[in-house]
Write a structure and sequence with these properties.
Blueprint lengths: L8 E3 L1 E6 L9 E7 L12 E4 L5 H11 L6 E3 L6 E3 H8 L7 H5 L7 H10 L2 H5 L9 H6 L7 E4 L10 E7 L2 E4 L2 E4 L1 H9 L7 E6 L14 E6 L4 H12 L6 E7 L9 H9 L4 E6 L9 H7 L1 H7 L1
Parallel strand pairs: 12-13, 13-14
Antiparallel strand pairs: 1-11, 2-3, 3-8, 4-7, 4-11, 5-6, 9-10
Length: about 300
């Protein structure tokens, strides 16, 4: 069956594990989604589109500054269907970023540069906070909100190796904006807010266009990644392993510290011991002079050329 944005498959998180060790500045998670009985089909290199929900705490703040009732019904401007304000702001609206039309509802005299500043330094709720006496209706505000779009993540597993599971590698995103700490909508939803085995995770497959594992089992492959860019290459190597591909595999991987940020270390080192993988790493903070993946590529330029 083919799932889509309008008709997603409803999965649940079977397993969620923080991969970074103590002392790391990152929070990168290995997640396993249940796809048993879904008949989902995908190839290595494809992505999964996840329909995340906004943080309920931020939704509550937004409704509060809208001076609205969460249970009131509005008309979804994209479907013309009735929906509660709470559901619209939770599942349908981008409440992390305003646009020109939204801000103009509150002050038509604002100049372009002032609006641009608000857009880049505020979310919806703290824009609303600037206009405590506003009389804009909830419907008018919702009409001028941007949609909450699906988030795409590279699939980290081979369907041949895990026919009932889908593995993901996701780094939780947090940042400061306008002097306030914020979280990425989707990573907060997936990594923190969702409960394993309980929370529904709507999803569908987003096929890759051109980024695929070669079908030639005898052909060598070179993979270059840093951070979560590693995700599809774990899937590539699982596929090569389970299909008993004879072609050589070479992975260049970069992160900050080998002690705290070496994702799937056991898997890659096991392949290396089996002579199924040539592994070249670049951990930038392991030595005084920072080393990156591109430095390792230059050091191995002659061999890379031979492989190509």
């Amino acid at each position: 069956m083919t799932y889509s944005h309008k008709e997603p498959y409803i999965s649940r998180i079977k397993h969620r594990e923080l991969l970074n060790k103590e002392g790391s500045s990152k929070k990168t998670y290995h997640l396993i989604l249940d796809i048993n009985d879904s008949n989902i089909s995908y190839e290595c290199g494809d992505s999964v589109a996840i329909l995340a929900e906004n943080d309920p705490r931020i939704v509550d703040l937004t409704i509060n500054y809208m001076k609205a009732d969460p249970a009131q019904e509005i008309i979804n401007p994209r479907t013309n269907e009735k929906i509660t304000l709470l559901d619209f702001l939770t599942k349908k609206a981008n409440i992390s970023k305003a646009n020109f039309n939204f801000i103009k509802l509150f002050d038509k005299k604002l100049k372009t540069e002032a609006i641009k500043t608000l857009i880049t330094t505020h979310h919806i709720w703290d824009i609303l906070k600037l206009f405590p006496k506003h009389k804009v209706t909830a419907q008018d505000m919702c009409v001028n909100m941007m949609p909450l779009l699906p988030r795409l993540y590279s699939i980290t597993s081979s369907l041949k190796m895990y026919p009932n599971d889908m593995h993901l590698l996701i780094t939780h995103v947090s940042y400061e904006l306008g002097g306030i700490k914020r979280n990425g909508v989707a990573t907060e939803y997936i990594c923190n807010l969702s409960q394993t085995l309980k929370t529904k995770i709507p999803m569908y497959i987003q096929p890759s266009h051109g980024f695929k594992l070669t079908k030639d089992l005898d052909k060598p492959i070179i993979m270059i990644a840093s951070g979560c860019g590693l995700a599809p290459f774990r899937a590539f190597l699982e596929e090569r392993f389970i299909t008993q591909a004879k072609g050589n595999n070479w992975l260049f991987f970069g992160e900050r510290s080998s002690k705290t940020d070496f994702y799937f270390e056991d898997f890659f080192k096991d392949l290396e011991e089996r002579n199924s993988l040539r592994l070249t790493t670049a951990f930038s903070r392991d030595q005084e002079d920072k080393i990156y993946v591109q430095d390792r590529l230059l050091e191995n330029a002659s061999d890379v050329w031979q492989w190509i």
